Amino acid sequence: MAHVSASESTETTPAAHPLLVVMVLGFSSLCAALMQSLVIPIQSELPDLLHTTASNTSWVVTATLLGAAVSMPVTGRLADIFGKKPVLVASAVILLAGSLLCATTDVFVLVLVGRVLQGVSMGYIPVAISMVREVTPPRMTNSALSAVSATLGVGGALGLPLAALIVQSMDWHALFWLSSALAVVVIALSATILPHHRREHPAKVDVVGGIGLAIGLVSVLVGVTKGNDWGWASTGTLGMIIGGALVLVAWGFYEVRHHSPLVDLRTTVRLPVLFTNLAALVVGFGMMAQSVVVPQLLEMPTATGYGLGQSILQTGLWMAPAGLMMLAMSPVCSALLTRFGGRITLAIGAGVLSAGYVMGVFLTDEPWKLLLATIVSSCGVGIGYAAMPALILGNVPRDEASSSVGVNSLMRSMGTAVAGAVMGIVLTSQTTTLGGETTIPTHGAFQTCFVIGAAAAAAGVILTLLVPRDKSAGTATEQAGAPEQTVAAPA
Q1: Which of 7, 315, 434, 466 could form a disulfide bond with 298, CB atoms 3.0-4.6 angstroms apart?
Q2: Right CATH for 18-206+258-489 from 3.40.109.10, 1.20.1250.20, 3.90.1200.10, 1.10.760.10
Q3: pLDDT tens digits for 100-122?
Q4: Predicted model pTM
């Protein structure tokens, strides 16, 4: 394969006001990440609100996952070719379009399309992360990477209490009017504050590769996320998973032969990148396991003897500190990256995540105890999410930075999808009855989920330690590959 890269004669110049740029990238990424949990408080009411079945409305949640999974590597590659600022502004416009569509209709199909667009807008996040290296001086790169990377987890955690608070006192459309308003702000900030670098990049958009990746990913993810509903041995589930896997294999053969691939698989299979992406899979699994299990345990009726009897709003408020902890850990993550490098920092994050789940096994009898376990787990997630982009950016060429971070983000999303399926299997296979009628998960089922989460995070430690040792600790900028030629244009 003829590797296509940008001219390599000129280094990227940091932005004139890097802190302001990083704040815009962080805020905008947080707004995009909020879309993950925006409709969870009204999920049980969606069949009545949209005049359709519960099976259909479950797609309103799944659609955002699918849109994000496809958009992250695609958006990243577009940013590598055309520059990051145009792609970031376009992602924010897509967020506005999806939000307005959902805010102005009760038609199920249109809401579904809007949610897909909201998921596509989450491609903003990996591009923003990769932009950090361009706009920051080396001394602040690690801190900025940590803060912007944390938004993916923070947005999902804060979305739940925010959405629950809104729907308690307003019409459900207010959720999407809020996201529309946030999108307008993101568009304005991205268009006016972010710097633009015109680049001389000879690559062209790999349309066939994008279509193949979309078909393969969507098929596999639909099969995984719907397996519990359709039955894991059903023709539909097996057909989607196996068919999607075959498409992805064919896509891989096509990509390695393409002169300008959507995803450069030769870069992806380099050991540092490969093991970092595998670690992203299990860390994403660990984050989602917490998001699935803890809210259910908090909302379980006290009549069960182990449920904590919290309302949706109370549950969201119990979960919010864990999300904020990811952001609060940014200075710690920066110090760890500077002192130990990405490899050891990621191993520490996965280890802390595993310890949080071990705590969860024994701390399920009071909400505040469960909060302690989730805070520890979230510290691990925050450290891991900060370390992964640093490892990726330090081991790929600059002209593949955004697409490589996009693939890493995709692996996190795949981990969350698999976690949702696994936790669903556990919670539906170990059940008891409440009042002789309602089937609910047993206390042991929740503890089993925590054990599985701890094991997955421990596997992340092992995978991370298999990453070839850093030749030198330091910032992602110091470990970067070949520079790209850019000519700074006015913001």
Answers
A1: 315
A2: 1.20.1250.20
A3: 999 999 999 999 999 999 999 98
A4: 0.81
